[in-house]
Write a structure and sequence with these properties.
five-stranded parallel sheet; globular; about 15% strand; single chain; alpha/beta; about 35% helix; about 300 residues
């Protein structure tokens, strides 16, 4: 039995196989419509979510399986003080696989250590979000045709952005990647993320506070929101929340084939006026997330089409 807590638990070959499977699901959906019949996915979401939770549920339903679970901690026994370990042991009695989101870093790992079924980390605090990373990798590969030889800029909240941390870890294993880190000084990528991935893998990177000074050199721009729920101070959040707003006017200096990504939800960092730009890929990301989660569920349940 295998779980997925950190994207680094997957080899590059396994990632490629998952993306290949996702591509095949997109091309041949009927082939996969019954592969999880009789299987149940439990979605244990201790933190709010729209895309991740619903995409997991849609993925399982489209594989022919069923879904049970909860969407907030207050509707679970966690409100009574039940531990994550006991919740995992309990839910293992009802489901064949678990997807867990939790505000505390490491909680899905604790669940995986105590569950008797596979556990998927659907986001833990500011730490990790491996299925969003698979979603991002699928989007990049489908848009660019490859996962190598491009310059990607990460913009916004790079300190608390677990999607950024996970994607940096994944891309650090590919060749020809250049990284540009764009953020206020207070929201820079943590040193451990840079050391364990960019430095250790020899990935060239630069850091700047000025988006417009680097926009023209980017092949991919990965925007993020400033995450209010991670701040200890309302005043600090309000000071930084509008640090970067990507407008159609600013995009005039970007490459014609730029791929604009965002893990969503957005607040105001990408105005709706950008949605009609053919370079906007963030809603394609949303759809790709369902397909890659279908592929992952199949892998962890060891089912074939």
């Amino acid at each position: 039995m295998r779980s997925l807590i950190d994207i680094k638990e997957l080899s590059v070959a396994e990632i490629e196989a998952l993306l290949d499977r996702a591509d095949d699901i997109i091309a041949n959906p009927k082939k996969y419509a019954e592969v999880c019949r009789g299987k149940k996915l439990a979605t244990l979401f201790f933190e709010p979510s729209t895309r991740t939770r619903l995409s997991f549920e849609a993925a399982m339903y489209e594989l022919g399986g069923n879904v049970l679970g909860f969407s907030e901690a207050q509707s679970s026994s966690a409100a009574k003080g039940e531990s994550v370990a006991d919740t995992a042991k309990t839910v293992s009695c009802y489901a064949d696989i678990i997807a867990m989101r939790h505000p505390k870093e490491g909680a899905p790992l604790v669940a995986a250590m105590n569950a008797s079924v596979p556990v998927i980390n659907a986001g833990d605090g500011g730490h990790n979000h491996p299925t969003q990373t698979l979603t991002d990798l699928l989007t990049i590969r489908r848009e660019k045709g490859k996962l190598s030889d491009f310059t990607i800029g990460f913009c916004g909240d790079l300190k608390f952005g677990r999607t950024v941390h996970s994607l940096i870890a994944a891309l650090s294993r590919y060749t020809g990647i250049k990284v540009v880190l764009i953020s206020p000084d207070e929201l820079r990528v943590p040193d451990y993320v840079k050391k364990d991935n960019l430095d250790d893998c020899g990935i060239p990177y630069t850091e700047t506070t000025d988006l417009m000074s680097v926009l023209g050199e980017l092949d991919i721009l990965y925007m993020t929101r400033v995450q209010k729920e991670r701040f200890f101070s309302e005043e600090e959040y309000l000071r930084l929340k509008d640090s970067y707003i990507l407008t159609p006017e600013k995009l005039r200096s970007a490459k014609d084939d730029l791929c604009i990504m965002h893990p969503l939800p957005r607040v105001n960092e990408i105005p709706v006026a950008v949605d009609s730009d053919p370079r906007a890929c963030y809603f394609k990301q949303v759809l790709n997330g369902k397909f890659v989660r279908m592929a992952l569920i199949m892998m962890l349940l060891e089912v074939e089409a």
